[in-house]
């Protein structure tokens, strides 16, 4: 199993995603002889998982069933163990595009955190690219190395435990892009410029506060970066549902009643307007925004290394 090389069959040692529903899923490490408890009952790894195809529908001991999915960076983002706050797919997608990443790209990242963005970057630059990720916290760095090894991508990433603001990324003039997600990104702009290729490259800084953005932009200008711009991504989700509306009465019904000799005093005619109201409706699909919208996550500041 690898996050960048998809396999068909579940094997011992794989990381799989147990899918109970769109709002309920979790990762599990497949091990011979192990069991996993769900609200639908027990999943026995030896008989229910190992040897089955990814995407299989597995029946649990209580009669309920789940799907077993192959892990992807998107699924891992939704299910990973949180060691820090993470970036989600909305921001990750724009970062990948604006940094102009592709297979073969060399990327420097700090900090590693829970590895949400790291997995997406690794898949993007595979199979010939490489990610150099720096994490200040030693335990988080060790956990990241362990996860990359379990996920079959350790050959595509180098994890370094050091302070990027003081010691940089440990590489020079090789990176196509640099990403910063640290408390004081302005202190690492000089090291980011040194890591980027001499012929130029792109940089992105993620900061939750606008004061951080201001200081980062000033540092970028000081080090000669150009095309500096900051943006914020807000996701608005719509529910599609069926709406019934009454067809408006523009007077035609009244004219029809008078022309046909409609008698309101006749009991048999008194029910007909209600019947017409029931029949005079139309159904159509409509998009309705959710009442609660996910708000601010952070500001993304992009810039280009100048060739001058």
UniProtKB/TrEMBL annotation:
S-adenosyl-L-methionine binds at residues 114-117, 135, 163, 181. InterPro entries: SAM-dependent_MTases_sf, TRM61_C, tRNA_MeTrfase_Gcd14. Keywords: Acetylation, Methyltransferase, Nucleus, S-adenosyl-L-methionine, Transferase, tRNA processing. GO terms for cellular component: nucleus; tRNA (m1A) methyltransferase complex. It is found in: Nucleus. Residues 64-305 form the tRNA (adenine(58)-N(1))-methyltransferase catalytic subunit TRM61 C-terminal domain. Pfam families: GCD14. Its EC number is 2.1.1.220. One of its GO terms (molecular function) is tRNA (adenine(58)-N1)-methyltransferase activity. GO terms for biological process: tRNA methylation. Belongs to the class I-like SAM-binding methyltransferase superfamily. TRM61 family. This is tRNA (adenine(58)-N(1))-methyltransferase catalytic subunit TRMT61A. It comes from Taeniopygia guttata (Zebra finch).
């Amino acid at each position: 199993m690898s996050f960048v090389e998809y396999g068909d069959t579940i094997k011992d040692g794989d990381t799989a995603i147990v899918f109970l529903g769109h709002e309920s899923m979790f990762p599990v490490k497949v091990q011979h002889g192990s069991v996993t408890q769900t609200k639908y009952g027990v999943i026995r790894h030896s008989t229910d998982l190992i040897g089955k195809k990814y995407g299989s529908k597995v029946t649990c001991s209580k009669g309920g069933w789940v799907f077993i999915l192959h892990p992807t960076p998107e699924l891992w983002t939704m299910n990973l163990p949180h060691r820090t706050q993470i970036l989600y797919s909305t921001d990750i997608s724009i970062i990948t595009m604006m940094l102009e990443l592709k297979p073969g790209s060399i990327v420097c990242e700090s900090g590693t955190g829970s590895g949400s963005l790291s997995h997406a970057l690794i898949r993007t630059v595979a199979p010939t690219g490489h990610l150099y990720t720096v994490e200040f916290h030693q335990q988080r760095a060790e956990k990241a190395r362990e996860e990359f090894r379990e996920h079959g991508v350790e050959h595509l990433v180098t994890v370094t435990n050091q302070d990027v603001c003081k010691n940089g990324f440990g590489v020079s003039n090789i990176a196509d892009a640099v990403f910063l997600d640290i408390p004081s990104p302005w202190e690492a702009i000089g090291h980011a410029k040194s890591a980027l290729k001499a012929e130029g490259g792109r940089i992105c800084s993620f900061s939750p506060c606008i004061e951080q953005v201001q200081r980062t932009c000033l540092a970028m200008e000081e080090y000669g970066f150009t095309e500096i711009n900051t943006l914020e991504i807000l996701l608005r989700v719509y529910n599609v549902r069926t709406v019934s509306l009454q067809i408006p009465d523009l007077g035609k019904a009244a004219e029809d009643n008078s022309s046909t000799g409609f008698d309101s005093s006749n009991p048999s005619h008194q029910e007909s307007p209600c019947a017409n109201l029931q029949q005079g409706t139309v159904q159509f699909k409509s998009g309705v925004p959710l009442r609660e919208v996910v708000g601010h996550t952070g500001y993304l500041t992009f810039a280009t290394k100048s060739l001058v």
